[in-house]
Amino acid sequence: MKTLVAQARSQFLALNQIVNGQSLVYLDSAATTLKPLVVVERLQRYYAYESANVHRGAHYLSDRGTENYENSRLQVAQQLGAESSDEIIFVKGTTEAMNLVAQSYGAHFLNPGDEILITEMEHHANIIPWQMIAQKNNFVLQAVKVTPDGELDYEDLRKKLTPKTKIFAVTACSNVLGTINDIPTLTKMAHDVGAVIVVDAAQWISQEKIEVKKWNIDFLAFSSHKLFGPTGFGALYGRKELLQKMPPYQGGGNMIAEVSLEKTTYNDIPFRFEAGTPHIAGAIGTTTALEFYNQFDLNEVRKHELALLKAAEEKLKSIAGIKFFGRSKTRAPILSFNLEGIHPSDVGQVLDQQGIAVRTGHHCNQILMNRFGIPGTVRASFSIYNNESDVDRLYRGLIKAKEFLS
Ligand code: PLP
Considering the entire predicted model, what is its pTM? Predict the structure, then answer.
């Protein structure tokens, strides 16, 4: 039987603390989720009793570490609906995954004049790696427009996604607007013009069941810390046929078959892409984080989080001068807004003084900020551990911020 969402809160000890004289309200899960006790304890156990290097096989702890590390790869493959664990490459997170695909696939298989298509709602992690290879190799980088409601402009997409497009790199869920894009449809559209699709699932991973194989996705990346896992760890899924032809991204230990001064032959996938000692604790902690997350009914999680989003929207819209950004029909529990005439970082500061943690600024989406003609927003994001009282505290905190800053 699945565990009830209402019971989740007790797993997050961070919520028991006092910040600036008040109990903490954490509304910054889109930046990183809090970590449940089971994950914290698992990491402690690894460092206390199990710490050893993997893939070296000379002793008990090393063997056990390797088993746990590779088991994590299997868990991640299952979570994403991949065909085999060889298709899962462990990386630092979504950012490193995008750099890997750009450098190892993009820089090798595209020709000058080829086009890379992104969108105006991309996080910098899904812009800059493409811009870097485009500038160096004379590829053309284009971005699909975003509508005033914060959805992808499909008319513009159809104009820009052409047989010249070789890579379509798109977020499945905007970290600013909450917009959830229709990845199965976008994948089909990319394939129809002969492009590969690269999906940024950093926010999506906590929202929907992902099925890379079923939907025929070419590359997809996520970060564990956005799904109750450790920071500095994530995974890249790549379709086997693509990964097999890609050259290594970094050189070093673990990624080789044979080395001489003249020449190196490389290990098979996925190890070819994992140079050096990996983030072993990250992998082990991710297994526990996935187990934690999977004990809940995903529909119940979505219902809970979207109810909070709706309640927040309803309450906050009574505040004079508030403007929301992002009104997509399919949303993640992310609420971006500004108070007229007040800088978002000032709002964030006054909320922080009341123990309320939100994110303010451009959220690593400067292209999107330019699109809306704003310097930044205040962003409240909700997770499994938030409740109605958090919404109420946010509302009261904003009333105070308005009084204080107007
Ligand atoms: N993409 C999106 C949509 C994100 O929200 C984030 C993190 O905020 C990233 C990419 C980058 O993730 P990381 O910093 O874990 O690599």
Answer: 0.97
How many angstroms is it from 123 CA to the middle of ligand 1?
A: 7
pLDDT tens figures, 271-290: 999 999 999 999 999 999 99
Q: Which residues contact 309 (CB under 8 A, 6 or more apart)?
A: 178, 331, 333, 334, 335, 382
Using alpha carbons only, what angle is made at residue 343 by residues 340 and 348, rounded to the nearest 5 degrees? 110
Q: Is domain 2-30+297-405 classified as CATH 3.90.380.10?
A: no
Minimum CA distance residue for ligand 1 atom 12: 94
Q: Which residues have any ligand 1 atom within 6 Å of their CB?
A: 93-95, 123, 125-126, 171, 175, 200, 202-203, 223
Interval 13-24: pLDDT, tens: 999 999 999 999
3-state secondary structure of 339: strand
Task: Answer whether 2-30+297-405 and 41-294 agree in fold.
Answer: no
From the CA of 91, how far away is ligand 1's center (Å)?
13
Q: Where are the domains of the chain?
A: 2-30+297-405, 41-294
Residue range 41-294 forms a domain whose CATH class is alpha beta
Q: What is the mean pLDDT of residues 297-305?
A: 95
Q: What integer pLDDT is reported at residue 1 of this predicted model?
A: 66
